[in-house]
Amino acid sequence: MTATLDERARREYLDFALGLIPRTRAAIRSRLGGLTVEVKPDASLVTDADEAVEALLRETIAARFPGHGILGEEFGHTRPQAAFQWILDPIDGTDNLAHDIPTYGTIIALHHEGVPLLGVIDHPALDLTYSAVRGLGAFRNGQRLSIRTPDPAAALGREIIVTTAPENFARSQDVPLFNAICRAFPNLRVYRDCFAQTRAAQGSVGAMVEFNVKLWDVAAVPVLVEEAGGKYVCVREREGIYSAVFGKAAVVDALLPLLQT
Amino acid sequence: MTATLDERARREYLDFALGLIPRTRAAIRSRLGGLTVEVKPDASLVTDADEAVEALLRETIAARFPGHGILGEEFGHTRPQAAFQWILDPIDGTDNLAHDIPTYGTIIALHHEGVPLLGVIDHPALDLTYSAVRGLGAFRNGQRLSIRTPDPAAALGREIIVTTAPENFARSQDVPLFNAICRAFPNLRVYRDCFAQTRAAQGSVGAMVEFNVKLWDVAAVPVLVEEAGGKYVCVREREGIYSAVFGKAAVVDALLPLLQT
Question: What is the pTM of this model?
């Protein structure tokens, strides 16, 4: 149980995860300008940088924590029965990386007995690292994050909302949900990578709606957002496909009825 | 006529416009952290930084080119009959600036007898300045931009498209156009500031669709995109409200039939 992990152990995992970032950044930087881009069967992109970063993370984690499981976007699941599971998206937003859109990021999460324990999201091109471990706060480049409650006098409907693309909603014939969000919260953005999640973790936006994504896409978010004082709700999980809403509690609560399916 | 402006004159305007950027950046930087944010009657935001930057630009332009007109988002139109018109959006994406989303920018354009002559878009938080003057190329931090033609073997439908928010389409009951774009080009993003325009100017995205925006929102785009080798088409202009599509020519051509209204 996560509750039995003392603070020293939690800090150790965080320090280890943060120590990975200079290495993942170097692996990405060394490939910029000469990326080898391929199209995967699902039409998404993969580059040699995605593979190199995940291989580096897997190697380093396995050397330090040989009993832990590792689930990554590119190379599958090792030790799926282990209590500790590292969940990795080496480059979230590969399409953006490949097109010189600097909002992509590296996602590293650690879950313990199914409960999110640690989350790190790094934006190498923006020099921004977000990190949190359960019970010890959320940070951006070492500075504590605290999501402010919306001003009760301001119109909740003008809060900024970020969603995944209409395409994600279309996968389960849920475009009407996307349209309902647009009508209720017209101040909308669609970023298509973890830049949206870090905007939610630092309270820049009212909330983010992830729809029909994989576990590695959202694995770092619960701890990051909750430790920053926000709320995270998984609204659907079907066969490894997740939908969630997170951010300022009042905005999350206002979005929830729109997402009941 | 623009054709009569020799290269030396065009370079002079460009050098002058680029010389404004260190001053606009300093004016913004000095206000970060202590922004005074107000809500305008149209529910958009304005800060003391917007007003300070526009005042600075107006003063500097008027001192150097006293016969030129100036149209800015915050302080109206002076000398609307002049042949040369500077068109200014001191901070495009004020909502993003106010919420620590670093994609906002300063837009400076010069039109001559109604024809776009010069365009500059600066992203202070990203340290990226885009500039172009008619006939002399488009540049990003001094490096020449050249939009590549899409690979004919690749599916045009997977090109990245950026649009203004569904809210902009709703202003003229044109949400069906937004939905048609989503269906034809599902790899969609919504950024809500000039970051989308600079992505188009550097060929990161297939095209951008601006819908129901003001002149200062798009005034720098035609020269930036065309000088980078792309295509710009204004699809509608009604009482000072503009809609346009721009980017890679093949993608613009594929989007045009969806935007006929």
Answer: 0.95
Residue B1 has pLDDT above 50, yes or no: no
- The verdict on A189 touching B (C-beta cutoff 8 Å) is yes
Instruction: Answer yes or no: do A166 and B160 touch at CB < 8 A.
Output: no
pLDDT confidence bin for B149, thresholds 50/70/90: confident
Side chain identity at B15, as an amino acid letter? Answer: D
pLDDT of residue A44: 83
CA dihedral B167, B173, B178, B179 (to 10 degrees): 120
Note whether A204 contacts B99, CB cutoff 8 Å: yes
**If you ran DSSP here, which 8-state letter would residue B3 be given?**
G
- For residues B116 and B219, the answer to whether their CB atoms sit within 8 Å is yes
- Cβ B160–A43 below 8 Å, yes or no? no
Contact A112, A223 (CB under 8 A): no
Contact B129, B141 (CB under 8 A): yes
pLDDT for A3 equals: 54
The predicted pLDDT at position A1 comes to 44
Best A101, A163, A168, A193 member to test B by mutation, with max B CBs in 10 Å, is A101
CB A81 within 8 A of CB A91: no
Q: Do A158 and B188 touch (CB under 8 A)?
A: no
- HSE on the CB side for A11, CA within 13 Å? 4
Query: Judging by beta carbons within 10 Å of its beta carbon (0-12, 13-18, 19+), is residue A239 exposed, middle or buried?
Result: exposed
Structure tokens at A134: 């359960």
Q: What's phi and psi for B64, nearest 5 deg?
A: -85, -40
| Contact call for residues B215 and B240 (beta carbons, < 8 A) | yes
* CA A173 – CA A120 distance, rounded (Å): 32
Q: CA angle at residue A101 from B201 to A176, to 5 degrees? A: 100
* Helix (H/G/I), strand (E/B), else coil: B75: coil
Count of C-beta atoms within a 10 Å radius of residue A111 = 23
* A151 has a chain B CB within 8 A of its CB: no
At A107, give phi and psi (nearest 5°). -110, 125
| Nearest residue to A54 (alpha-carbon basis) of A78, A21, A89 | A89
Low-confidence ranges of chain A (pLDDT < 50): 1-2
Amino acid letter, A10 = R
**Whole-angstrom distance, CA of residue B49 vs CA of residue B29:** 9
Tell me the percentage of chain A whose pLDDT exceeds 90. Answer: 88
Q: Nearest to residue B95, comparing CAs of A197, A161, A245, A151?
A: A161
Report helix, strand or coil for B97: helix
CA B123 to chain CA centroid, nearest Å? 11
Interatomic CA distance for residues B103 and B96, integer angstroms = 7
CA–CA dist A203, A44 (Å, integer): 29
% of chain B residues with pLDDT over 70: 98
Q: Which residues contact B33 (CB under 8 A, 6 or more apart)?
A: none
User: A167: which 2 tokens?
Assistant: 């395409």
Predicted pLDDT of residue B151: 75
